Amino acid sequence: MKILVLTAHPDLNKSRINRSWFKAFAETDDITVLDLTRVGGPTMSFNVEEQQQLLLSHDRIVFQFPFYWYSAPPVLKAWQDQVLTYGFAYGPGSKKLVGRELVLAISTGGPEDSYHAGGYNNFSMDELLKPFQQTALMTGMTYLRPFVFHGLAVVAEAAMEASIATLLAHIQDPELNPLIKKARMDKLLENDAELAARVSA
After folding, report:
1. In CATH, what number is assigned to the domain containing residue 148?
2. Distance, CA of 65 to CA of 68 (rounded, Å)
3. What's the pLDDT tens digit per position in 114-157?
4. Which is it for strands 60-66 and 31-35: parallel, antiparallel or unpaired?
5. Using CA atoms, how far apart are residues 38 and 35, in angstroms rounded to an integer?
6. CB 148 within 8 A of CB 125
7. Does residue 47 fall inside a structural domain?
8. Which of 21, 116, 124, 201 is most buried, judging by how many CB atoms fall within 10 Å of its CB?
9. Where are the alpha helices (DSSP H) in the chain?
10. DSSP of 138-184, one letter per residue?
11. Angle at the Cα of 29 from the Cα atoms of 157 and 15, rounded to 5 degrees
12. Domain Flavodoxin-like fold: where (predicted)?
């Protein structure tokens, strides 16, 4: 599985955690990383054909970013507006991204318990990330469970360091795709009558 990580951070040199994630991705086989802020420059302008070819040559696309005002930094929106064009990503007969997967890797300043009904952010991360899920649906990609690292404002360095291995395992897991996981479980049940009986009980 070939993975493309699109990192959207205004300044990775000033990042506490996204810089470490970016470095780990860059050092891992079968992962291509792109710093969108560096590539797009001050005007956030992208070579559309080049970016589209990158998407087509990878199986799983990762949007990596810090959560800013319940969304991504502007450079990711600029990239989406320019690259996910009509006739390529959507439109009659033009969904060229069908069959690919989209997963988000996100850091937040607020603690996990603030992203719930009754918390000071009021909504869950799944609810707040719906626009990205809809982007996947619109383009024919499979939206996968996001990786979210909470509480960056107060978290210890050791926890940030530990997040690297956890994140790598998350985005490289083939069974992050529920269809693949279900196919494996179906095969297990098919070959194990006792297990199948327990599941159906």
Report:
1. 3.40.50.360
2. 9
3. 998 988 999 999 999 999 999 999 999 999 999 999 998 888 88
4. unpaired
5. 5
6. yes
7. yes
8. 21
9. 18-26, 36-40, 48-56, 74-83, 125-128, 130-139, 157-172, 178-191, 193-200
10. HHTPEE-PPEEE--TTT--HHHHHHHHHHHHHHHH-GGGSHHHHHHH
11. 30
12. 1-169
Q: Predicted confidence band at 94 (pLDDT cuts at 50, 70, 90)?
A: confident
| 3-class DSSP assignment, residue 191 | helix
* 109 vs 68: CA distance, rounded Å: 9
**Cα 172 versus chain centre, distance:** 11
**CA of 26: how far to CAs of 5, 6, 32, 38, 47, in Å?**
9, 11, 7, 15, 21
Phi, psi of 66 (to 5 degrees): -80, 145
3-state secondary structure of 66: strand
- Tokens representing residue 95 in the block: 């969904």
Sign of the alpha-carbon torsion through 119, 146, 135, 42: positive
Domain span at residue 87? Answer: 3-173
Residue for token pair 């802020």: 37
Span 165-190, pLDDT tens digits: 999 999 999 989 877 767 666 676 66
Q: How many structural domains comprise the chain?
A: 1
Two tokens at 44? 């956030």
Distance CA 9, CA 16 (A): 11
